[in-house]
Amino acid sequence: MFGYISIDKPEMKVRDFETFRAYYCGLCRQIRRDYGQLPRLVLSYDCTFLYILGAALEDSIPEYAKKRCPVSPIRKRGFARDHGAEYAAAVNVLLAADNLRDKVKDDKNLGAGAMLLAYRGVYRKAGRKYPRAAASIGEALERLSQMEREKESNLDKVADAFAGMLRDIFAGLGKHKDEEKVLGHLGYNLGRWIYLADAYHDRQRDARKGAYNPFLCRYGKDAAEQSGGEMKETAAFSLNSSLHAACAAYDLLEIKKHKEILDNILYSGLYKKTEQILKESGKET
């Protein structure tokens, strides 16, 4: 469930895009610093958002530098190091392991299985460093696995498990109870949006493979091929209401820097992603 939190690049200033990319590259370097080279392969934009949000809640001045990397060995790239880098790196490692497990379970992906085996050590290291996040991810996975075995068709119930995990992860950025509560509400609704967006986006693939999908359990496999209907209406309402709630929570936060970047993601990038997913109805996904 990676890659859904994204920027709207055409609507972003060049300066802000360069800053966003510097945090993305900075997170990559933090992962290498804390967990080695291998986990850099599963770097996500989702955790880059978490990193920038955590930094934006602080008055800290980011450290910028330009260095070469394996992806860009000739041209130097900008890197940002700021508050929250270690936390975002650990969460990226923990969530990446979850993503690899899904690929192994759903697609029988041998490459993902091999990577997951090599991942055990860094996963444990991240879990020891941030046990609350690791425990929340473990609990969410267990709940989701149980509902998958039971073929749960209640969309809200299934999405709640993943949303609760993101609530705890985002709350970990807070400095006091009130801020933790608001961040938790933001994380919960983003998590709900991510889970439902992923499920709706994968509905046709899951129908072909016979994989679990709460939309299919509720509306049947035939509905996956329809260009409209009740399934799409439910998805549109659920995705947009989750985004509205997430933005309402975000508006309560005291953002001290990088507000233009976060606004672009929440008010433009995620809504455009929602439109894209809904327009794919009836097409191969």
UniProtKB/TrEMBL annotation:
This is Uncharacterized protein. It holds the Pfam family DUF5685.
